[in-house]
Design brief:
Elements: H1 2-15, H2 24-36, E1 40-44, E2 52-57, E3 62-68, H3 77-96, H4 106-116, H5 118-124, H6 129-142, H7 147-158
Parallel strand pairs: 1-3
Antiparallel strand pairs: 2-3
Helix pairs in contact: 2-3, 2-7, 3-6, 3-7, 4-5, 4-6
Length: about 160
């Protein structure tokens, strides 16, 4: 009696995507919201190892988010999402004039990164101290469900005051 039930549950489990899996709809929604801020989204060939970057210089009229198409699996919505969510966090930071998380949250955020994404925590150690604070938020945002960066880009950049 239990064996058929277990087999049925196992079959269903194989068809369910992981909880953090994103869809192309999520990618398109966040990309549209980023574009609505005035940021230009671009696909570029980049140096090996670079997945994306955000460049903002108001004086020079530069406001662009780049995904490095040669270093990101452009067929995988999760891979594209991670870069887009990360760089969209830098857009939020530009809109906010600095970090988007309260300083009191940093110990928890760092602990979460160290426990759930030790590779990100390790990468953070390579950043200069003046960039590390902003990168902590960006790596943390990659781990959120899609609704968080989608809501936050609206809250920080698109909501009328």
């Amino acid at each position: 009696m239990f064996k058929p039930l277990a087999t049925a549950i196992a079959g269903i489990a194989l068809t369910i995507q992981p909880a953090l899996a994103t869809s192309w709809t999520d990618v398109e929604r966040l990309a549209t919201l980023v574009a609505d801020t005035g940021t230009h989204l671009e696909l570029e060939e980049c140096d090996e190892g670079l997945h994306g970057y955000y460049q903002y210089n108001q004086a020079r009229g530069i406001d662009k988010l780049v995904i490095c198409k040669n270093n990101v699996d452009m067929e995988d919505p999760d891979a594209v999402w991670e870069v887009l969510a990360h760089e969209a966090t830098h857009v939020m930071q530009a809109c906010n004039g600095g970090p988007v998380l309260k300083d009191t949250y940093l110990p928890r955020v760092l602990r979460e990164l160290q426990e759930t994404a030790p590779h990100y925590y390790s990468i953070l150690q390579q950043y200069r101290s003046d960039h590390k604070r902003l990168e902590i938020e960006a790596f943390w945002m990659e781990l959120r469900t899609p609704d968080v960066p989608i809501r936050w880009i609206s809250d920080f950049c698109l909501e009328e005051a």
